[in-house]
Amino acid sequence: MRKRYSHEKKHRSGEIPTGSFSDIAFLLIIYFLVATTLVKVKTITADLPTGEKTSQPQSDKTPIVNLRGAEIFFNDRKVTMPELNDRLGALELGTQEPSKRVIMLESARGTPYENYFQALASISRHDGVVAIVEEDE
Amino acid sequence: MKKKLQSKKRRTVPVPIASMGDIAFLLIIFFMVCSEVSKDNSNIQVTLPFSEFVEKIEVPVAARVAIDENGEVYLDGVRVDGAKDVEWGVRALLTHTVSDEQRHVQFKCDASLPKETFEPVIKAIAEAGGIIEAVGDKPN
Q1: Which of residues 105-134 of B touch A (CB under 8 A)?
Q2: Beta strands A42-46 and B131-135: pairing type?
Q3: pLDDT in tens, B79-113
Q4: Where are the domains of chain A?
């Protein structure tokens, strides 16, 4: 037994088999390529500029979107989401100077994010600058 | 001429495959160096809101804020206590930014959450100087 072992050992070349390295490497590449997810999420861009808080109301002409639960009001008139889009589109905010692009966004307690998001999307789409109206505490 | 053609038949063209392993490993190293570890908050359970105006995001985002269906707030995948932590975190991440392109912050929120939960976080992002990229979906 000992003899056989020593005999075998003598004939070993000691080389590391590298023949399958390229296969392993390519398999790893394929794995990475398959496992990679190139996710591009869909978003709306909303720039909410920060500034001094003021208790004074904005100019009377500043449009206001009011969300009360599932209901939407634009300048105190109840509207649907398509109507809000139309009205915001009619304002042609993109052609106005930045200070006149402000749209106030007020929401009542309990307003779901779904409605808020849609109003935000509509304002942003029509180049409006969102000013969040805070509730009195 | 015939003879010449015959000799062509015998020619063996060996494809050099000795460096294939090296090339493959170099490719792997390249992919690993260039890859960015996902901070997409994709494991956070949210029902996205719908809007026809959503578009595929084209700009890189500096931070990712998410609020799950239970109202838990996450900043870059790490749970934080509330809006104040979001403001400080985003402010810190935007410290070295020089242009508006670098100030985009991804905001993902569950569609059913009430205003009291999400509005402070939106305000916090705005206060920190971030431009909000609110994640939504297109209606079918």
Answers
A1: 106, 108-116, 118-119, 122-123, 125-127, 129, 131-134
A2: antiparallel
A3: 999 899 999 999 999 988 878 888 999 999 999 99
A4: 64-132
ipTM: 0.73
Tell me the average pLDDT of chain A.
Answer: 80
Which residues face B75 on adjacent strands?
B65, B78
pLDDT for residue B42:
63
B136 interfaces chain A, CB cutoff of 8 Å? yes
Q: State which CATH number among 3.30.420, 1.20.1730, 1.10.3470, 2.60.40 fits the domain covering A64-132.
A: 3.30.420
- Tell me the residue type at B118: F
Say if B85 falls within a structural domain.
yes
> Does B131 reside within a domain?
yes
The nearest CA of chain A is from the CA of B52 a distance in Å of 9
Q: Strand B63-67 vs strand B73-75: parallel, antiparallel, or unpaired?
A: antiparallel
Q: What is the pLDDT of residue A95?
A: 86
CB contact under 8 A, B20 and A22: yes
Burial class (CB in 10 A: 0-12, 13-18, 19+), B132: buried
Minimum-distance CB partner of A117 among B38, B134, B138: B134
- Look at residue B99 and tell me if it is in a domain: yes
Residues of chain B with pLDDT under 70: 1-10, 35-42
